[in-house]
Amino acid sequence: MNDTIFMYGVIRLRQMMWICGVWVLASCGTDVTTYYVAPTGAETAAGTKDHPFGSLATAKRAVAEEKASGNTNRFDIVMLPGTYFLSEPLVFGPEESGTPDAPYTIRAEEGGSVVLSAGAPLQLSWQKQGDHIWKAHVQTVDSIESLYAGGKALTRARYPNRAEGVYPFGGFAADALAPERVVRWANPEGGYIHAMHSGRWGGMHYRITGKDATGMPTYVGGWQNNRPSAMHPTMRFVENIAEELDAPGEWYFDRAERMLYYLPEEGEQIDEMDFIAAQLESVIQLKGNEEHPVTDIFFEGLTFQHTVPTFMKTQEQLMRSDWSIYRNGAVLFDGTERCGIHNATFSLLGGNAVFVSNYNRQVDITGNLIEHIGGSGIAFVGNAAAARSPSFRYEEYVPANEIDTIAGPKSEAYPADCIAEDNLIRYIGTIEKQVAGIQIQLAARIGVRHNTIYQVPRAGINIGDGAWGGHVIEYNDVFQTVLETGDHGAFNSWGRDRFWHPNRAVMDSLVKVHPEWILLDAVETTVIRNNRFRCDHGWDVDLDDGSSNYQIYNNLCLAGGLKLREGFYRKVYNNILVNNGFHPHVWFENSHDVFTRNIVMTAHQQIQVNHWGDTVDHNFFVDSTDLEATQKYGIERNGVVGDPRFVDAAAGNFTLGKDADFLADGFVNIPMNEFGVVADRLKALADAPEISPLAIGSSLAAGEVIQWYGGKLKNVETLGEQSAAGLAEVAGVLLLEVPAGSPLARAGIQPGDVILACEDTPTEDVLALRKAEASHKWKGRLLLDIWRNQQRNRVELPLE
C-alpha cells in the first residue's frame, strides 16, 4: 500500500515539475524549438509567431523532420487563438516522442481559446419548405451523424420529441415502434432505435435497415451491453426518421439527396447560424506499443469538440463486467509512457472524451473540463490478452482444472501508474448509457483524486473487475448519479475474476477448496478514501459480484448507503452513511470482510447473509431501534447508540462536535473541505451535491407537512384523522395533496390515503417512512401498503 502511494507521489512530482519548470528547462541546458500555428497561417510559412503555420499537422511534420535529423531539443508547438478544423485525426508515433528532460508540448497560447474540431463547417444556402422547415443542399460532406450550432448539439428528428430533464433519453415512449407509427415512415433505413436494457443496466442501440414484409422495421445492434436483453418495453425512442421532424431544434439529413432539413427554434435566424457537421471519431491519437512507446508528449489548454457518435461500434466485450466498449476517444492514448493532457476542455463530443487503451504507463490527465459528451469521460482499459484465464460474459467460466493459477497479469498490455486528477466531469452519456465519469478495467494502480463528477446516467466512477487493483480513489465529489439506469452506485465495481462462477453453489465450493484463488487477479488492495458520494437511485458505494481486496474509509455517503456483495477481504471503517446504512448482500463463508466504526442511520439491510465475515461490530447507530433490529442477526453486540452532534449537517458539514458520543469510542473526524476539484477555473464552474435534512431524531413537529414525490404528507396525529381514515390507531403517514401528473398520482395514490408500510416495514410516522425509503430505494421502486376505504392495498411507486 505504501509503495503504491509512493509511486503516485513520484508521478505527481514529475508532472508538477514539468508544469512549473517547463520554461526553465532551457536555462538548465535544454534548448527549445518553438513553432507557432494560427488558423490564418500558411502551410509554407516559417512557423514563427509573425509567420505561423496554418495547421497543427504542418507543425507536427516540422517537428518530426527535426527529430528525424537528430535534433534533441525540447519542442513546443504554440497554437494561436481560433478554431482548427481537422480533415483527419492527428496521430503521434514513437518516433515523435519527447524525453523526460526534453518533453514535446502542444499547447494553446496563454490566455487564448484554441478549438480542435473534428467537424466540418457547412456552407449552406437555405430555402423555406412549408411554414416552419428550412432545407439546404450539402456539398462538402457525405454524412452527418451529429450537427452543432450556437455552441450546442442539435437534436436529430425523433419520437418522442426531446424534453429537457426527462430521464432516460430526454423522453421515451412505449409506442415508438408501434405499427400505427411505423406505417408513416416511407423509408426508415438509417434511422436508429435507442432503448434501455430491460433491467435498466444501461442503454442499447440499433440501426434500422429497412422494413420487413409486415411493414415493421428491421434492425441490427443491441450489443452495447455485455449482459444482453430485450429492449425495455417502454423506455425507447427512435431518431433520424424524416417523418419525425416536427419540433423546434430538430434536423434531418437525407443522404441520397444530400439535403439538410432544420426546424429553427423561436428567435433563431437560420442564415446567421454557423452549422458544423461531425466527421471524425478522434482528434488526437498517440499510438505506440510496449516495445516502442510514445513518450513525453503533452497537450495543454486545448478544447476538443465535434466528434461523431460511436455507439454502434461499442461492442467489444469487457471480460465479465456488464460493459462493452469501443477503444477510441477525442484523445486516445495507446502504447504510451509519461504522456498527458492538462487544463483542456472536452465538449460537444459524440463518443468518449479520453481513452487510455492497452499498454500505458504514467499517463497524466489533470485539470480538464469534460462536459456534454455522448460517451464516457475518462477510460483506462487494458487488453484482455493480459488476463489469465479470461472469460467474457457473465454466464461464462473457465473449468476449474483449466484455470491458470499464477497471480497477476501475463503481459504488460494494460494501463498502470496513471492519474486522473482535478477533472470536472459532467453531463456525460448524452447518447450512450453504459458509461462512467471515470472507467477502470484491466488496469493497475490508477490514481483517481480530486475529481468532481455529476449529472451522469450511471456510475460516476466504475471499476469493471479486480484485475489488478492497487487503485487509490480519493478526495472525489461524485453526485447526481444513476440518473437513467438502475441497480448501480455513485461508485460501482465488479469482481468477476477468474475464481468467480455464475453458479453460486459452484463458486462456494471452489473458493472453499481454493481460497488462494480469490486474489489471483485482485493482487493489490484498492483504496477508497476521503470521498463524498451521493446516489439517490442506488447506493453511494456499490461493490458488486465478487469485488475483493478493498479498503474503504473516511468517506461521506450522503444518500444511498454502502453495499458489499459476494466478495472477499473488504475492510470498511470510519465512514458516515447519512440517512442510510449498510447493505450486505449474499456473503461468502470466510469472506474476511470487516465493517466497523462506521456511523449508520438505518439498521443493516442484509440479503441472504448467513456468514458475517471477520467483524461486523462496534458501529455507531443514531437510533436504538436500528441497533436492536440489527442485533437480531447475531451481530453488533458492541454497537453503540449516540448523538454524532454534527457541526452543521444542514450545510454539509458532518464533522462531529467535540462532545459527540462517538469520538470517545474511536471515530475520527473526516476532512469536509477537500472534496472535488481544486483548480480555480474548475471550482468556479462546479456544482455541489444536495444536502438532505437528517432523517434522525424526532419525527416531524406537530402539524408539519413535507414534500414527497410530488405530493404533500404528514404524520397521522389526531383522533379526528384516525377516525376519518378509519384507522385502528393513531399511526401512519397521511397524504394531503397528490397533484395530477406527480409520481404519486401515476402510482394511483390519492389524497386521504394513509401509508402504513413501505417494503413491508411499518411506517408509523414520516421518520419511519424516510428510513424505509432510504433502505430500499436502490430497487428503483417502493412497494407501499396504503389504507383506503377501510381496506389495505398495495401499490408500486416507481422512483423517477
Automatic annotation (TrEMBL):
Domain PDZ, residue spans: 707-790
Protein name, entry field: PDZ domain-containing protein
SUPFAM superfamilies, alphabetized: PDZ domain-like (SSF50156), Pectin lyase-like (SSF51126)
